[in-house]
Fold this sequence. Notes:
The chain is an alpha/beta fold. It has helices spanning 25-37, 47-58, 70-80, 97-105, 124-129, 150-160, 211-221, 245-256, 258-277, 313-322, 364-373, 386-401; strands spanning 63-67, 88-91, 109-112, 135-141, 163-167, 175-176, 179-180, 187-191, 204-208, 282-284, 291-293, 298-303, 374-378.
Amino acid sequence: MASLAINGGAPLRTASWPGWPLFDEREEQAVLDVVRSGAWGRNAGKKGDEFEAKFAACHDAKYAIACVNGTAALEVALRGAGVEGGDEVIVPPYTFIATVTSVLLINGVPVFADIEPGTCNLDPVAVESKITDKTKAILAVHIGGRPADMERLGAIARKHNLRLIEDACQAHGAIWNGTKVGAIGDVGCFSFQASKNINAGEGGALLTNDAALEERCWSLVNCGRTKTGQWYEHHLPGWNYRLSEFQCAILLAQMERLEELAQKRQENGDYLAARLRELEGISPQDADARVTRSAYHLFIFRYHAEAFGGAPKERFVKALSAEGIPTSPGYKPVYQEPVFRSAPVFFPGVTSSTMVDYDRVDCPVCERLCAEEAMWFKQSMLLGTREDMDNIVAAIEKIQANSGELLA
Ligand SMILES: Cc1ncc(COP(=O)(O)O)c(C=O)c1O
């Protein structure tokens, strides 16, 4: 008789996992207050200003600018930082598509640099090897909420006079070497889309410590206006990327639980990582003393098939999910997405001689991780109990003990 749930055995766990989003009367009251105030748009109310001040302060940043979503924040950050048509921006291939399409959307040229296997973040050595005289910026993602190596990436950016932009869309409250991420580089971008660690359904924000960048990004979010100019006075070709007062009010409520939930994820995430490190064939993201806190938006880990009878990653992901531990196989390399494959990638202002041939991009570490090793649990699972974390370990141990069944 089969032991593994994937083959009809009893699953190790049948209990549900913590749901998402978490809310109570604070979110309900916040929305009601805005409805009743009649001040629904960003320019009519004060919730947006309050949220920006709070978000900046809690991320060790001077300025925050709320906007419609993380993708918009990235477009604004890139344009605000001076990236123009044809400029190259170095990006990781292991990320959500928007990191890279935001570069395309402002007519920049994404250039992929490989990732480190242990962190799944940009490999600084690979980044430096991709710098050309057209490189304008490095777009560093804190993947899964685990800070990228801001020390080495910062040194490379300074040495080559490049902008360093943080995609912190998964990294609310993450701390690198004692400082919250988001404004360690020139400018950082956040998402408040429904799955994120703070959630307004949709939403985004930029952080920076640079007054000139703040002014420019603020203008780009606000139709090219200036803070002191007339309503119909437009200095830049900006967007209307303003966030509504409803979303800002919800975010204010969500922020009241950010620290408590961040601590809970860290506690459970660090515990789970330590326990999984004891298993043969499972590698959580590398520990690094400079990572004061991961936001654990995703709990990313690597699977080594040889410790599970050679069963392929897909089979393990399905087996673990069947045991009652929802597991995602995660991304494929961004440059393998159809947008870079089937249709010609369109860069206005870029001639064919300067086009990147994305069929020829080669990031072997990312390709191996996506195809064979990397997978994740989502952040809400880390809001459970210590017993929940032990269930995860026990399910993997069960699969390992019965790995012969994986190949059946
Ligand atoms: C790493 C990363 N970058 C960018 C984004 C884009 O954010 P949004 O969906 O709010 O546009 C997301 C999330 O969806 C993300 O995870």
